[in-house]
Write a structure and sequence with these properties.
This protein has 592 residues and is mainly α. It has 25 helices and six strands. Helix 22 links the parallel strand 5 and strand 6 (528-531). The longest helix has 37 residues, at 190-226.
Length: 592
Amino acid sequence: MAHVSFSPSTPLGDALVILGAAGIVIPVFARFRITPVIGFILVGLLVGPYGLGRHVADAPWLAYITITDAQALAPFAEFGIILLLFSVGLELSFDRLWAMRKQVLGLGAAELLLAALALGVGLKLMGQSAAGAIGLGFALSMSSTALVLPIAGSTTPVGRAALAMLLFEDLALVPIIFLLGAMAPRAGGAGWMELAQTLGYGALVVAVLMVFGRYMLPHLFAQAARTKSPELFLSASLLVVIVAALATAGVGLSPIVGALIAGLLIAETEYHTEVEGIIAPFKGLALGVFLITVGMSIDLAAVAQNWVAIIAATAGVVVVKAAVTAGILRLTGARRGVATEAGILMSSPSETTLIVLATASGASLIAPPTAQFWQTVTALGLTVTPLLAWGGRRLARRVDAASHHAQNLDEETASHAVIIGFGRVGRLVADMLKAHDKPYVGVDSDPDLIAGAVRQGYRATFGEASSSHMLERLGLDRANCVILTMDEPRTAQRLVKKLRAQYPDLPILARARDTVHAAAMYRAGATHAIPETLEATLQLSEAVLVELGVPMGFVIASIHEKRDEYREIIMHDGGLSEKPKLKSSSLRERVG
C-alpha cells in the first residue's frame, strides 16, 4: 500500500486551511447576519504570506494553519469566478439577455467608458503619462462581478442594473487587453491584427457552442437524469462549464464568456433548476477561495508605510465611480435610491482590474511600482466592497425617504388604520380595508415595495417604523388601530413593546408565525396575535378529513377542539386572563 504523507506545504494542507476557514467563517458570520465575504477576506489576511505566514520561519507549527503560496490557489479562485458566471447564465435566458441588450450595450458601455475617461483624466492631471492614464482608467473602471452579484442578486432593480454593467465589462475585457497591447511602444500594428483574429475565432467558437448546446445538452442531461445518480449529474454539469470555458480561453477570449454561454444554454433546458442546485455548494466554496486570495494579497506593512496615499487613492476611485454610475442611472430613468445604491456598490475596483494592470505593466504603459501601488488599492477596494454595499443600502433608504416625503401623509386624517409592513400580507389587509371604505396608511422600509404599491394606487409611504419620528408622522395618536404584518419575529416583538409603551390604549393586531410567537407577541403587549401557520394547518386538516370521508360534523368538532387546545396554550404562555380569539371563532359560532 502506498504511503500517503501529510505536509503543510502540500495542496492537502492548503485544502485543510480553506475548509477549516469555511467551517468557521460561514456559521459565525451567518450567526451575526454579516456577509461571509468579509470573513473570507479577513481569513486570507490572517493566514496569508503577509499575515501569520511571515512568521512560519520562527514558529514552524504555523505552517499547518497558513498558506504561503498564493499562486497555487489562483486556478481555484478563477474557477470560482467561472462558476459564478455559469450560475448567472442559469438564472438568465437568451430571451431575457436579448431583452437586456439595450441596457448591456447602452448603460454598460456608458458606465465603463465614462468612468475610464473620468479616472484617466484625473490621473493625467496628476502627472501620469497619457498611455498610462488610459491603462489605469480602464483597469480601475472595472467592477467586481464576484462580489457585486452575490450581494445584489440579479432580480432586484439594483441587481439588474449591476448585471447589465458587469456583463458589458466582462465582454469588454478582451478588447481592452488587446487595446493596451497595441499601445505598447514597440507593438506596431500587430496588436490590432491579433485582436481581429481573436474576435473572429471567438465568434466561431461561440457559434459552435450554441449549436452544440441547442441539440446535444438536452440529450446529455436526459441520460444523466435517467441514471438517477447525483454524481453523474454533477459530472455532466462540470464537464459542460469547463469545456465551454476552455474553448473560449483557447482562442483568446475570457473563460468566463464560455461559462456564461454554458449557463445560458442549460437555462433553456428543463434541467436548469437541478443543475443550479447541485452547483451551488461548489460555487460558494470556490468563491470563498477567491476571497481568501484577495485577503492574502494585502500587505499590511506596505499599507502602513504608505497608508495616506493608498486610502486617498481608494477613496478617490470610489467617489468618482459612484458619481459616474449613479449619474448615468439617473439619466436613464432609475429611481434615486436605486441609482445611489448601485453607484456605491459598483464603485470599488475588480478582480479583473488586476488582469488589466498586469497587461498595462507588461506593455510598459505604467512602471512596476505604479502597478504594485494600484494592486494594493484594488485589494483594499475589494475588501471594503461589502461595507460599501451596506452603506449604499442605508443611504439609498434615506434618499428614498426624502423623495417620498413629497407624498406627505395627510395630517388631518383621523381614525385610520396603520399597516406596518406592506408586503403580500400588508397589501391584502389594505385591500380589505379599501373594500369597506376604511382609511389606512401603509409603511415599509423596502423602497421597491413602496414604489410598486404607490404605482398601484395604495396609500403607502417609505420609512423605518421603529423610529419615533416616523411613528409621529404616521399619526398613531389619531389612529384607531395598528396592524403589524412584518415577517421578522424579534423586530415585531420590539416594535409591539415600543408601541404599547408610547400608546397604551392603541389596539395592536399582529401577524404571528406560530403559537409560540403569538404568545410572545401577547406578552409584548399585542391586543390580538394571529398565528398564520396554525390556521393554515387546521384548514388543510379539515380538507384532508373531508376528502377521506369523515362526516362534516365530526370534522368541524375536531377542528374546534384542536383550535381550543392552542387557545389554551397561548393563554398560558402569553400570560392572558382569558383565551384569545382565533380566526374569529366566536363569530363563526354565532353565524353557524
